[in-house]
Fold 3-hydroxyisobutyrate dehydrogenase.
Amino acid sequence: MAFCNSSRLRLLLSLNKRTPSFTSSSFSVSDFSWARMFCSSSVQSQFERVGFIGLGNMGSRMADNLIKAGYNVVVHDVNHDVMKKFSEKGILTKKSPVEVAEASDAVITMLPSSSHVMDVYTGPKGMLNGGDLIRSRLFIDSSTIDPQTSRKLSVAVSNNNIKRGRGPVMLDAPVSGGVLSAEAGSLTFMVGGSEEAYRSAKPLFLSMGKNIIYCGGPGNGSTAKICNNLAMAVSMLGVSEAFALGQSLGITATTLTKIFNSSSARCWSSDTYNPVPGVMDGVPASRNYDGGFSTKLMAKDLNLAAASAKDVGARSPMTFLAEEIFTQLCNEDHGTKDFSCVFRHYFCGKDELS
């Protein structure tokens, strides 16, 4: 009990240090009741039933890992076939997001776009429209969306708390690692929101991932994700351009790879995810750019980065050029190929025969 009281005191003293995009009234009632709630027993017992909305390639595997970790999972997706697969495994399914929120202690969403996220949370059948029937105390959005939408959603959750005098908290927690990491439970989570909520949610994250990084206040997880993917895109463009230029000037990409990887040009795009077919085994370039991280998803993430850069007036020439290049690849019907196909289809690089 002494620990619980000291935790409450620290929380109340920290309210004045909250992210400035929120008013103090947004937290005065709900954060205190939330702190009381998380001062009891174990996190496993606090989140006995976990909702999961969005059962695509990533979400279905993340939900499976929660099930393996011993959580009682309830799911929803607009795809009835995938819902049927979970139902056949004995997993509880619901017809709408609000029904998931009414049946779950925590809800995780993994959705394609910002508009899908807002609809699931604030639409006609959205989770925040359940009123006093809402059971969920924690919402985690792992979708890759723009930081502005993540922050808007956090405000909506806070306002919902004020109206009810109690309610859930919100974390934005996009992931890195792709389908293979989702299946293996080795994802990286980039988490934005209340640090207290982050600590309490950590066992949930560790059921689905290996690296859990707290990024700061609301929207910072989404910011981290789009910045990471921007750097990844620009790196791949630079490496691909250099390889293609080297080939044109008479040096093989295999030789350049050895040079890059033992000098200052070394990076993930050269030593781990090489874009030149024939240079490295086990990467998308070795299988005609099938699998991996699709060009259309990279274009989408760059669009988010470009929109965010415009919103804050940042000077981001590489962002807009990268967005233009990957969008062009999509328009030329390469959208389903791994984004490293930019080496072949934009820079006209050549395969290297062994």
